[in-house]
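cron nightly-structures :: item 1 of 1
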Amino acid sequence: MSCTLFAQGKKSLITPQMAKRTAYIVSNNMGMVRGIFQDANKLNSIRKTDEILAEIDKHPDYVENFCIALINMYGTGDGGYLAFKDCGFTLQEFKIAEQIYRNKRKEAQRAKEEADRKAAADEQATFDKWMKEGLPNDIMKKPGYKPAKFKMKAPKLAAYIDDELGVRSEFIDKSYFIEIDKEGKMKVKPTDTLLDKAQFELESPSLYEFANLKKEVFVPSNYTLKLIEKRKLAFSDKEIKIEWSKNENSWVLSKPKDVEKELGSDTYYAVRYGLLAHLNNMKELQGDKKKHTVLASAYINGSISCFLDGKDFDSYTLLNSYVIKIIK
């Protein structure tokens, strides 16, 4: 298959007939071809497109790009052949387009392989340097750096706090210092039951990835994990009268309206069900059906929040807590 020499001196398999045919169908806006031609050649201006079409014999590369775009859309089988045929191209011209398409793919593959070789060589040089001189101080700012990923089960920690620790005068406010060593292993100080219950784990260590070499280097790094428990004291040492209700078969507030007025509606409705549940679970009141006065304290709106290097990491809501003593 011979090459055609165009006015600008570039060799191309595009024939003058193919160039003229392309200019004709694009100029007359036959179907989608004008849009395909413009997209293939990154032409946003109608005027610039018409200028190119008027001197199409000087621009075989524009015709090549158009042919390649058609094949990318319709393939090299019958679909592609019919698309070219609908545009007025002959079978021989379709074969030329196929050859151009194959040549371009080979060129692109060679270019990619060369780029990959160069990238791998550059990475190898960097890798060798780092292995000899040590990791650079600014490695965490480089594109290939991937920070460590951690996972933690805040619900497990919340359940431990609610069920095991209960109400305390001092709430959790604790910091842990995490170190990822050069082997990619995590060390945490201090280690304690609290963190064990949270099931805090290293999902993947901090590392630098040499993508072209298919290598990874662990990056020693440090993190800070902070656990903060918060609760609101709804009321403290509040005297509340209770009585046994035969109809409900449970302990109830003797004067709920008075309690609501004293606590305020928002607080009252926030603690009402939890307070009664706590009363009905007290061993001291089991089997006892006399009226009593209790001294109650309540903590509400509790949460355990986890921060990693100062940023929100996880959080979970805690149950409302009650401390109740029978005083008479």
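cron nightly-structures :: done
Residues 5-9 have pLDDT under 50 and may be disordered.
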